[in-house]
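Can't paste images in this forum, so I'm doing it all in text. The chain is below; anyone willing to post the predicted structure tokens underneath?
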Amino acid sequence: MATDKHGLNLKREIGITGAVSFIAGTMMGSGIFISPQYVISTIGSPGASLIIWATCGLIAMLGGLCYAELGTVIPESGGEYIYMLRTTGRAVAFMFVFSFTSVMRPASATGIALSFAEFAVAPFYTSCRAPQLAVKCVAAGAIISLVLVNCLSTRLATIIQVVSMAVKVLAMTVIILGGVVMLFDKGAGNFVNTFEGTDLRVRSFGIAFYQGLWSYDGWNTLNYVTEELKNPEVNLPRAVVIAISMVTGLYLLVNVSYLTVMTPKELISSNAVAVTWGNKVLGSWGWIMSIAAALSAFGSLNGTFFSGGRMCFVAAREGHMPDILSMAHVHRLTPSPALIFTTVVSLLVLIPGDFQSIVNFFSFTAWFFYAITLSGLLYLKIKKPELPRPYRVPIILPILVLIAAVFLVLAPIIDNPQIEYLYVTLFIFSGVIIYIPFIHYKLCPGLLTKLTIFLQLFLQVAPAEKNL
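Text version of the structure:
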């Protein structure tokens, strides 16, 4: 058992290959197989859609590099939560963890699980759309399977991530090569007048970025598991650069392939772009793209649970969630209570889940908190320059990403305000109402202590120390 003289620890088992796989594997989920139709339908032209995809990659890269500095200045797991806790205080950090556990991570996991299920059942419903009940049952099965894997072994979860990344890269390579063949065969007809019809409204750019950045979501995955990363001061920035560069290049080439094979109108009307592409290029072998897209989403879902469970684990360790969530299995050394909790909330969100609205509201909430986190990095650079920094970025980078984050929060509201965004904002700030009595004044009933003891014995878990 990996313990030290202080107590139980999560093991440092993630090397550079696993690190790249966790970032790239979480990013390359279902988004690139579905989102292109939403990006082009929102922005209105193929040329503008490619610019959106390239800009999303640039934002993800700059954000990842800023987070790499944060991860080496504050070398603790927990991502945004731990950075807010150390820079903006306990109340703001609790607002984040409240939103993360109840909206952001369940919405992200549910969106990916629904995408996995759509692709997984597509070969069985060739002539019609799959029933929503069947899709949601398959999605629930995927969620439960992956929480079992993550509870059993960190190494097994890492292996799944590496294998699924290989499948994704192979699938995208097939799409890219198919696009090259079709480009020589058909010519570049779909790229004539490539910017014609571009929608220049601010809201259109905001929503298009939401859909594009959904496909890049996961660029900050490693910051949730810093304490399980080998040599983080070297491997964290290195993995960010390798993974995000690879993903951006693949995404751009895949979009060019889609637009070579399909007209913009065909692309917009497609239920799943990759499947339509497969049917057009591979003919009777088109079902292969459904399977590849499903496996891709499965790997992304695995990375989402892996990082999401760690965030709950760290928040509980800091006293912002029930103590049971800060414990690890005494033999397997995985944060199983936090993983189980994340799964239960995700299954509840799955019941009424709708993919496109999930993406929009997830993105709005996520970029609100990314902006606060980047403000924390600027604070550390200006007010705490003496802190040891094994890796640092120029101050202009967090400023640029902060501007992008503010734009992404405000853009959908400026042109076409929707009451739903007000509800989401009120929900985020409602965390303060829970924080004051239950966290600040510790109004915690004795029943919770008895439940913690029961669950600790039932789940065979014990408190875990920081792994610094």
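The radius of gyration is 22 Å. The chain has 18 helices and two strands.
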